[in-house]
Specification:
The strands form two sheets. Strands 4-3-2-1-5-8 form a six-stranded antiparallel beta sheet. It has a two-stranded parallel ribbon with strand order 6-7. It is globular, with a radius of gyration of 17 Å. With 204 residues, it is of the alpha+beta class.
Length: 204
């Protein structure tokens, strides 16, 4: 029984920070002076279940909000030169369940949410602009973590930049490179076995 409890107390979350070659990403990178322009939160090593705030389609950069992301489709699928860093975060079972609840609330009310364009301006001015139902990507990830009792940053969510996650001492970098090669990297480096056999050859 003791071993079962220990296993439940150790869960993994994954944060993807990335840089595409889209015009909005270039503008954000220019404003923030940071190497990465986008952040997402994932529940699994393969990044099969991943969430963020970004454009809802490929062609309209202003139609943005809460989205479920896939590294093989959408902007990620189109921009094969997307660079990224995948971060691993160890949390307790209680914190993990809180994250699931937070994400479930976002999914249930997805139509209410809008992209916090003004918030990006606030980041540049170092003044958080936080509005109900409005988030930019890294603000969203930071808010989900914060409300789940996962405190890894000394910033208000409205001031968090994607690269802040990489700089946190609470995360571990497990990959850096082209996003399209990430799952191949998992397979070739035998991380499937190291992470409990969740990565399958068929998934590639």
């Amino acid at each position: 029984m003791k071993n079962d409890i220990s296993e439940l107390e150790n869960r993994k979350l994954y944060i993807l920070i990335s840089k595409t070659h889209t015009v909005p990403a270039r503008i954000i990178k220019f404003w923030t002076k940071e190497p990465y322009a986008h952040a997402s939160i994932a529940l699994d090593l393969e990044l099969r279940e991943m969430y963020s705030f970004a454009r809802k389609g490929i062609y309209n950069p202003f139609n943005c909000g809460f989205i479920i992301e896939d590294i093989d489709t959408g902007i990620f699928g189109r921009d094969v030169e997307t660079s990224c860093v995948v971060l691993e975060l160890t949390v307790t079972d209680k914190q993990y369940r809180h994250v699931l609840q937070e994400l479930a609330a976002f999914k249930a009310n997805a139509d209410r949410y809008r992209y916090n364009f003004w918030g990006l301006y606030g980041v540049v001015r170092n003044k958080a602009i936080e509005r109900k139902y409005n988030y930019f990507c890294s603000q969203f990830v930071a808010s989900v973590l914060e409300r789940s009792g996962i405190h890894i940053l000394d910033k208000q969510p409205g001031l968090v930049r994607p690269d802040d996650f990489r700089k946190s001492s609470n995360v571990k970098v497990i990959y850096k490179g082209l996003l399209r090669r990430y799952r191949e990297y998992l397979w070739t480096h035998d991380l499937a076995q190291a992470f409990g056999g969740h990565v399958t050859k068929q998934a590639m």
